[in-house]
Amino acid sequence: MPKIVFLWTDVALWLMVLGALAYVWHVRRSPNLRATWGRVARDTPAMCSAIVLVAFTVVGLLDSVHYRPQLPPVPGAAADAAPVYAPVVKSALDGLLAGTVLTQPERNYSEPLAVKLFLKETMLVDDKPVRDFPRLRGAATHLTDPDKEYRGDVLKRLGLGLAGGLGVALLSAALLFACLARRARSSAEAAEAMLGGRSDVPWRAMTITFAVLCLTVGALAGLSSGYHALGTDRIGNDVLWQALKSIRTALVIGSLTTIAMLPPAIIFGIAAGYFKGKVDDAIQYLYTTITSIPGVLLVAACALMMQVYIDNHADLFDTSVARADLRLFLLCMILGLTGWAGLCRLLRAETLKLRELEYVQAARAFGVSHWRIMTRHLLPNVAHLVLITVVLEFSGLVLYEAVLSYLGIGVDPSMNSFGSMIDGARLEMSRDPMIWWSLMTAFLFMLALVLAANLFADAVRDAFDPRTRRYKPGRMARLGGWFGRRPAPALAAEPRPSKSGDAP
């Protein structure tokens, strides 16, 4: 049995998942929240983006289950000897990809779907030194004659991958149709809702998005069964494998930093707006001072102090993964504790308006404590600002991590991240011939993650912000208008009694 390893970020990430599930349960019990999230569910770009975000989250959670494999017993060891575990920490994602081409390193660069290395090396051919491109040792080893077999083998693996992805998409579509048919009165209504788009929830667009995602994953999986689908980097590691491992880092940076930012922003923002006076002046002075310092310099100073502490207490970490994970966790705390000023300003301004309303004044007149007023009357009325800021800050923090890693003050160099991939591609882009696939892969993965998060955040903002909330007719109402259907006639108004009080 392997030994389960609990890293700081693993625990934090899974606690956030449990918190999200608890919030879903709370939404199901609240009619108002259910109606608000229903508006998000009717937004087509948001629901298509949610499918992409779920796919990234699944990969990140698989990479957040770490363990140390158990080593085989030493010959001649006693039967009751304690088990020995490997010093290398692996994740569930590593276990799923074990034995594939993704985990087979090369000696150097190789292009996507290449058979040979990208750079020439000196080899001995018939006891004579020859300068040529050597064959890869981890990919395309099944080809005996690459010149004749390469094209057909690539097309075959691509076709099998696309067929597998299409099969998964069709099976999922069939399960969705069965669920819709069970809820609807007939299969025809379910077909209209799913294929004709005649439903409030955009099932057709979500099905198409999921099918495209399945085809993309299937194509990459099929090609990666025998080749490095997106090439390798300077030390021979598969670029697709690095991108998959970087997803967890992006999710941790975006989510954990946002959670760390909320407590000081909520407490100081509501307190400054409610108490005003000296409390407001002190809090304003604090966040004005923080925002006056350049953010990169402040984060760099905190990160360097954190690194000195880790270097001076190396005996606290039994593996290099635990050391790198603690650095990532502390980096999230630093970013959260230095980036709360923006949300604090928003909450202060909103609280200044809410404290003058009648129900808050009545609570103060009845002698309700300040803490109860802030938690029962003010906090629920600024919750929409908190939720909107959380979803909007996620994508910005993912991009900010790339900038910090590019400057060398981000995550540990041994940990995969999109910023590290971009930093490693600095010199590769200036080579001749240019090595472009590492930067392209990091760009595409970050674009998909950040774009999906932004589209989903826009829908959440429109649904929860009462100032931007606008009437949007349901999909069935719009279809009824397009096909010439008229709304049902209004009920006749009841006759009003005469002024004299006699019956009509």
From TrEMBL:
* One cellular component (GO) term of this entry: plasma membrane
Q: Which residues form the ABC transmembrane type-1 domain?
A: 247-457
Q: Where in the cell is it found?
A: Cell membrane
Per the record's keyword annotation, is Aminoacyl-tRNA synthetase included, yes or no?
no
> What keywords sit in the KW lines?
Cell membrane, Membrane, Peptide transport, Protein transport, Transmembrane, Transmembrane helix, Transport
Its membrane topology = Multi-pass membrane protein
Major localization listed first in the record, in broad terms: membrane
Q: Any transmembrane segments, and where?
A: 6-25, 46-67, 158-180, 201-230, 250-273, 285-306, 326-347, 382-409, 434-457
| Annotated SUPFAM superfamilies | MetI-like (SSF161098)
Q: Which GO terms describe its biological process?
A: peptide transport; protein transport; transmembrane transport
Q: Which family does it belong to?
A: Belongs to the binding-protein-dependent transport system permease family.
| Protein name, UniProt field | ABC transmembrane type-1 domain-containing protein
What organism is listed for this UniProt entry?
Achromobacter pestifer
Phylogenetic lineage: Bacteria, Pseudomonadati, Pseudomonadota, Betaproteobacteria, Burkholderiales
